[in-house]
Amino acid sequence: MLYLSVGKQVNIPTIVVDYREERSGIPDLLCQLGCDVQLTSLKAGDYIVNDSIIVERKSKDDFVLSLMQGRLFKQCVLLQKSGYVTSLLIEGNPYHTVHNVSREAIRGALLSVSLSWQIPINYSANNSDTANMIMRIAEQNPKDTFMVQRYGYKPKTLQKQQLYFLQGLPLIGPKLANALMKHFKGIDRIMSASEVELAQVSGIGKNKAMRIWQFIRSGE
């Protein structure tokens, strides 16, 4: 399905959009801003801007939910493998959501995305602001964007990325991170585990389990 803005100009931005974004109303808003918008099924991201920049859009609630379900890190891997310049765009304040997840856990996830995966994070207030942000992204020079250098340690595989994230939990080093993954078989199960379930992991015990559970669940 192709959206064409009225009065098409030679250099208007071209935005390829995942069809699931249609319900957000953002494709229509982009058309109103003068973009050519094409709906399709994307394997990674939600928007591909001028065939050079890929944007993953998340509402504040979906960002936290994707963290809890373990989707966030898989999506980061797909973004990096896409071959495009990457960007994560969060609508709203991820620290104020309907989910009972601590500020520390959310902050850790944001730091992992920006530092471990080297994916820049931008914020918008609402759908209209998101459309304007994507329009501004489209106006950037892709050649200049590709000149950004990436520094620091960055785990290469999904397994190492998951272990790297788990080591951000209280009292968790490489050995216990491996023990958690071996026991629960996934980040989503770790994030939703009870204090009793965490204590059953070899090397964790009741005290560490309490600290980890409070870290994940406390809204303070």
Describe the fold and architecture:
- Keywords: DNA damage, DNA repair, DNA-binding, Endonuclease, Hydrolase, Nuclease.
- One of its GO terms (molecular function) is single-stranded DNA endodeoxyribonuclease activity.
- This is ERCC4-type nuclease.
- With 220 residues, the protein is α/β, with parallel strands linked by helices.
- The protein has 2 domains: 2-145, Rossmann fold (3-Layer(aba) Sandwich); 158-217, 5' to 3' exonuclease, C-terminal subdomain (DNA polymerase, domain 1, Orthogonal Bundle).
- Helix content is 46%, strand content 15%.
- The protein has helices at residues 26-32, 60-69, 71-81, 103-116, 127-138, 142-145, 158-166, 174-184, 187-192, 195-199, 205-217, and strands at 2-3, 14-18, 36-40, 47-49, 53-59, 85-91, 121-124.
- A 7-stranded mixed β-sheet has the order 1-3-2-4-5-6-7, sandwiched between helices.
- Helix 4 (103-116) links the parallel strand 6 and strand 7 (121-124).
- Helix 1 (26-32) crosses helix 5 (127-138).
- It is elongated.
- The protein starts with a strand and ends with a helix.
- Mean pLDDT is 83; it is low at 1-10 and 143-153.
